[in-house]
Amino acid sequence: MGSVQTPIGIRSSALLETSCGYLLQELQMIWDEVGDDQFEREKVLLDIEQECLDVYRKKVDNANISRAQLHQELADSEAEFTHLLLLLDERSLPGRPEKMTGTLKEQLESIAPALREMRIRKEERVKQFRAVQGQIQKISAEIAGESEYNDLSSNVLVNGNDLSLKKLEEHQNELQRLQNEKIERLQKVESYISMIRSLAAMLGTDSSLIITKVHPSLNELSGLSKNISDSILEKLGSTVRSLEADKKARLEKLHQLGKALTNLWNLMDTPQKDRARFSNVTALISLSSKDISTPGSLTLDIIQQAETEVRRLDQLKASKMKELFLRKQIDLEEICKRSHMEIPSRLEMESIMKLMNSGEIDHADLLTSMNKQITQAQEEASSRKAIMEKVEKWILARDEELWLEEYSRDDNRYSVSRGAHKNLRRAERARVMVNKIPALVDMLMAKTKSWEEERKKPFLYDEVPLFAMLEEYNLLRKERDEEKQRQRELKKVQNQVPVGQENLFVLRPSTSSKRLSDRSLNGGFNNATPVNKKSSLGIQQLGPTPINTPQQSISFLKESKKEDHRKILPRSRFAFHPGDDSASVVSSFSGPFSP
């Protein structure tokens, strides 16, 4: 109501005293009524007092135990808090009081929030460690090639003695390293698989069977995680090396077949349309293994088809070899004829044909040799082209010179007759050409000399040295000009002497002309090469028999060549035209290949 409240301890003590006094009075009344003596009464009171002390003592002991427990809880909390700080590598926690004040319960209440926060942080840190270590164990198991791995993170054992961020960072770095290694291994696996597919496509084999044979997980249809262990990488590398070895072996085989096909085609002059079917084989001859990536280019079917074609061509080669050899021989002879070079002997060709029929000579080597001779003949013909053009001009001019001489000896050339004006115009053109002959001959001699010095052999024109022919021509032309000069001087003298003496002078030119013609021929050939010396010797042996036509000169030279035991008959034409005022020679021939 309006009374002042008293403290709990005082109020309890007063209540106790009131209660105890009332009970003590009631006990005394009982004792009085019963009639207990004073000793009994004191003993009972002592017992009551002792019991009260025991109760108080028990309560005090319980209070002490409770206080000690609070002290222990506070110490444990502080120790746990400190341990968590050290375990998590935390220096302090915001919100924690620096100094503990108040009662024990107040102190426990003040540290409890900070302790709960540290416990939560520990649990989160443990989860982070468990996740990182779980990934490390998983990737490590994949790298090790373990087919089954329990991905339960609860099975991961975390070291509770060190949950610092530094330790977590170390695990994260290890995880990153393993992830990078896993990526690299996956890239290697994909690279190997790609190479296997490419090589298998080139070789015409099933890549999926090869990959599955290495490991089923490498096949994308399996739905399994790819095995990236060291053993799988080694198997993949070994498979790639094996396929590359097969590729190299097949390419070498196709190189051999391609070269064989090319040689057989060239030997038998196979048309290009027949070669096109195996162009994919011959195209590989110049390629190396690293240059080939076309799918289906190295299959066994292609090799078998090429082998079959090589066997077929080998069977045809023997029957066509004779025809090919004759064709090559004709080609060589045509080249030699066009350039007036030496033509190979018929006897030699016939002996080679006999050897070829008997099988004593290799067909490929024979045709290779023929091709080489044709190439050499073409090269030499090309080097002779400029000289041969000048020779043709010289021969044409020489023919015109001979015609002009015949025309000049015709007493009726100025008569009015049908076609006389054409001959006059031709004579004018012929004189222009004849006047150019000395310069043309000098140019020919210079070119021929340069050609011979470069080639280290004489320039032959139908087996006759061209330089000697030109020298012979110059000598005969000089002697002819001298003879013409003497004839003109003789005519002047004849016009001045008496008629009786004129007959004497008329006889001397004839004798001189006869002697000069023989001397000019003999002297000219003696200054030439051995071929012309033999021709000169034949002229001397013929004595006074005249050589008035080109046909007679050809027969004469052929006979002299036969005496010289030449292998190839010449087709030479020397035209000696001894007349009253000249003796000349001209040569045109087609043939020999210079040795």
Automatic annotation (TrEMBL):
Coiled-coil positions: 53-80, 161-188
Keyword Nuclease: no
InterPro entries on file: MAP65_Ase1_PRC1 (IPR007145)
Keyword field contains Nucleotide-binding: no
Compositionally biased spans, kind Low complexity: 581-595
Predominant location: cytoplasm
Protein's cellular compartments: Cytoplasm, Cytoskeleton
Keywords: Coiled coil, Cytoplasm, Cytoskeleton, Microtubule
Region feature Disordered, mapped onto this chain: 515-551, 574-595
Gene3D superfamilies found in the cross-reference section: 1.20.58.1520
Domain of life: Eukaryota
Annotated family: Belongs to the MAP65/ASE1 family.
Protein name: 65-kDa microtubule-associated protein 8
Biological source species: Solanum pennellii (Tomato)
Source species taxonomy: Eukaryota, Viridiplantae, Streptophyta, Embryophyta, Tracheophyta
